[in-house]
Design brief:
heterodimer, A: 391 residues, alpha+beta, Thrombin, subunit H, 3 domains, 6-stranded antiparallel barrel, 6-stranded antiparallel β-barrel, 10 helices, 12 strands, 43% helix, 20% strand, B: 202 residues, mainly alpha, Rna Polymerase Sigma Factor, Chain: A, Arc Repressor Mutant, subunit A, 2 domains, 8 helices
Chain lengths: 391, 202
């Protein structure tokens, strides 16, 4: 019986070609017939083959190391003309290789920490910008806000949302509290309609009124009662009920029955605060808010309290009654046309009691005089209308 | 040199001559080839966060792959030697970088070295790695073999000593004894080697 080692001796002899003719033929025949035996031979050849290749690999590695060493040795004294050939090659193919030691260190550092440096730098940049942005936001948030600015804007937003709210807001603004008159809830302006004691104001001023007090420039006060209200055209007519009241005397202005023209210079007097305030502008449109033809649009700056004030043209004719303004438009005030007032008075006069007839002023006295003179005459006929409400 | 010629993708006469010379065992031809392409690879490795030593390792591995294929006659070059070497070394360096880097690796390539893809370098590098694994297993098997088998086999196969020298060195009475011992050692080595090599993960 042959051991495995004996087989290996046989294999080696066979592989080296040292086996004689018959033995060789015998072995080959056996390998062809017996797959296990063939496999054993294959293992043997793989083993010795690997050993030989391993040796070759080691030799090659040694050889290459030698070549590299020789190359470096040839390279180092390259300043001297001794090693021309390899030095030249190195030079021409790649001059980049010749870098100083420090530079190489720097290069190695850079290539090794490139990613980290990049991340750190971007984090730093982001932090800086975040800080700047944050500071900016903080500062804008802490700016002193002009008083009343915010509230006004909020109102405008509300108005945009809802037209109904807009109307309500206009009325509320125009009839708002005058803080220096603590007893009255709202105040507006009114002016004399006839010399007998009728006064015109806006309907929304006296809306929901419990009692109405009219106060002139000379602080003289009269009680008044609403005679007629026209909610559609925002007009109200009051009558002074005081016994001691004797009449206004002749009114200096006439009430215009027709329409005023576009671009006419107009002015108004009113009580947006305790004192009478003059405002002027021009007639900018012959229709009012949302195209309402009962109103004019005028470019007079008006404020809460101006409502019910007279709107007069250059010659001192009354052409309208200030009613409201549009908050989200620049200086757009609205005034009821005087023609509606005239029509209203006419219908009232038809069935008026004899004790209180309506005598509208027919002729004005203001034409041709200067504005200050006009106002001097006018201001006696413009009143504060103070409204008291039951709570 | 061949660089810059329009047909640079095919083998040039210089490359052919060089391969023929290397195949015939001309050590100077190998040395010439080595010196010729060293700057390219060292530049590449240095540019891609490697050191001079890394460059040397990678280049020697690469030349080894090339050299062994040339010697086997199994080299099928579809491009210049230069491109082939670049592709092989690139692949080797990429492998090393990815194994030691936490981040994804992007290599800076020299455009002038042409299309380093589809040069067959990938498969050759893989084959070389397989071969490396085999050699490592062999080396381990030899270490586990124990004396005197190890010295005997190393002496015969790796150091290329004759049986006669080994007989005297190990104090066998005659060459046949030494040979028998060698065969026994081979059988043991075979068991160790195949046990490890076969079960090692592919």
């Amino acid at each position: 019986m042959m051991t495995e080692a004996d087989y290996y001796a046989l294999f080696e002899a066979y592989a080296d070609g040292e086996l004689a003719g018959p033995a060789r033929a015998n072995l080959e025949a056996r390998m062809a017939a017996d797959p296990d035996f063939a496999l054993r031979y294959a293992d043997f050849t793989e083993l010795t083959g690997t050993l030989r290749a391993y040796r070759q690999r080691q030799q090659t590695r040694e050889q290459l190391r030698g070549i590299h060493g020789a190359m470096l040795a040839a390279e180092s004294p390259e300043v001297a003309p001794a090693a021309e050939q390899p030095a030249k090659l190195t030079h021409t193919v790649n001059p980049m290789l010749r870098i100083s030691r420090t530079e190489r260190k720097l290069r190695e550092f850079w290539s090794g920490h490139r990613a980290t440096v990049g991340v750190a730098a971007s984090v730093a940049v982001m932090a800086v910008f975040a800080t700047l942005l944050g500071l900016d936001i903080w500062r804008t948030n802490h700016l002193p806000i002009p008083a009343g600015y915010q509230a006004l804007r909020r109102e405008i937003n509300n108005l945009k949302q809802n037209q109904k709210v807009l109307n309500n807001t206009i009325q509320r603004i125009d009839g708002s509290v005058t803080p220096l008159v603590p007893v009255s809830k709202f105040s507006g302006t009114g002016f004399a309609l006839t010399s007998e004691g009728y006064i015109v104001t806006s309907y929304h001023v006296i809306q929901g009124a419990d009692s109405v007090l009219v106060e002139g420039r000379d602080k003289q006060r009269f009680h008044a009662e609403p005679v007629y209200s026209d909610t559609k055209h925002d007009l109200a007519i009051l009558r002074i009920t005081d016994r001691k009241f004797t009449g206004f005397g002749r009114l200096p202005y006439a009430i215009k029955a027709g329409q005023a023209d576009l671009g006419e210079r107009v002015f108004t007097l009113g009580y947006p605060r305790e004192d009478v305030v003059y405002g002027e502008g021009s007639l900018s449109a012959r229709s009012g808010f949302e195209g309402d033809t009962a109103f004019y649009q005028v470019s007079i700056p008006v404020n809460p309290g101006n409502s019910g004030g007279p709107l007069l043209d250059e010659r001192g004719n009354l052409i309208g009654v200030v009613s409201g303004r549009q908050n989200d438009a620049q200086s757009a005030a609205f005034a009821t046309k005087s023609s509606y007032l005239v029509r209203l008075v006419d219908s009232l006069a038809a069935n008026a009691k004899a004790t209180a007839p309506y005598h509208l002023p027919r002729y004005g006295q203001l034409a041709g005089t200067g504005r200050p003179q006009q106002l001097k005459k006018l201001q006696d006929y413009v009143f504060v209308v103070k409204v008291y409400e039951k709570d | 040199m061949s660089r810059g010629t329009p047909t640079s993708s095919s083998l040039t006469p210089t490359d052919d001559a060089l391969i023929a010379a290397i195949r015939s065992g001309d050590e100077r031809a190998l040395a010439h080839l080595y010196r010729l392409h060293w700057p390219m690879v060292s530049h590449f490795v240095l540019q891609n966060s490697g050191s001079e030593d890394d460059a040397q390792d990678v280049y020697q591995e690469g030349v080894m792959v090339f050299y062994e294929k040339v010697r086997d006659g199994s080299l099928e070059l579809s491009c210049q030697i230069k491109t082939y070497l670049y592709a092989v070394c690139r692949r080797l360096w990429l492998k090393r970088l990815t194994s030691k880097s936490r981040f994804g690796v992007r290599l800076l390539d020299d455009e002038e070295h042409g299309p380093y893809l589809n040069t067959g370098a990938e498969e050759d590098v893989l084959a070389a790695e397989e071969q490396d694994r085999r050699f490592n297993t062999m080396s381990e098997a030899l270490n586990h073999l124990g004396e005197p088998c190890r010295s005997l086999l190393e002496g015969f196969y790796l150091l290329d000593k004759s049986m006669q020298d080994l007989t005297t060195e190990f104090g066998y009475t005659n060459a046949d004894n030494a040979k028998n011992q060698k065969y026994k050692c081979l059988v043991r080595l075979k068991k160790l080697f195949f046990a490890n090599y076969k079960e090692a993960p592919i």
